Amino acid sequence: MTNKAINILIIDDHRLVADGLGLILSRLSNTVNITTLYSVRSALSDLVMLKQQSLILVDLNMPAMDGLSFLQSLSNRRVTVPVVVVSAVENRTEIKKVLQCGARGFIPKELSAAQMLEGVKRVLSGERYLPDHLAELLQVKTMSQQQIARNAETGMRISAESDYPQLRERQLDVLKLIQTGLSNSDIADILGVSESTVKSHVSTLFKAFGVSNRTACVKVGLESKLIDG
């Protein structure tokens, strides 16, 4: 990367996710300026600011106006800043739509921080970016009654009518940040807690969902609508 200032705008209606993405992108260089907004409309209200960006990352699925609407609005306003769509939705039809609407890349939220940075670097250098292949869907076991009982003993609120738990607010925060690809250390910095506390929350999530890795954990969260794409 050059020493020239890099202005990056992140648009995501989930503040924790947006802040997590900002933390990842701040590693690009010491000249990165991150702006975070939480709706497409707020971004479109300031065309001068938009045109000053080196790159825009926008979530695909947001209320009111989504990532596709944002791309179409930029085209109508003749804003030529490169845009990368970031989403947990890995549907080939949707990916094709965003590329046809002018997106310079598509980054699944399940990518690691290193992969995300590589994709952003390639777009900043003038290339298009799309991962070679989307992550394979993983088969996830549902919780057994014994798992439900164990979770109840540790204080987690479990719905008897559902295979999936209703997590505490802090554990949902951790789940959302896992979705962005952040490490335990980075999550701890954002939430203002110790890394060991984050590890404990991650372990609780794994046990509750019956999974052994972060990708599967995020998949359960998406399927159970505990987090959004």
TrEMBL record:
PANTHER family reported in the protein's UniProt record: HTH-TYPE TRANSCRIPTIONAL REGULATOR YHJB-RELATED, NARL SUBFAMILY
Annotated Response regulatory domain residues: 7-124
Gene3D superfamilies assigned: 3.40.50.2300, Winged helix-like DNA-binding domain superfamily/Winged helix DNA-binding domain
Tagged with keyword Phosphoprotein: yes
GO biological process: phosphorelay signal transduction system; regulation of DNA-templated transcription
Residues annotated with 4-aspartylphosphate modification: 59
Any GO MF annotation of the entry: DNA binding
Protein name: LuxR family two component transcriptional regulator
Record's keyword terms, sorted: DNA-binding, Phosphoprotein
Keyword Phosphoprotein among UniProt keywords: yes
Domain named HTH luxR-type: residues: 160-225
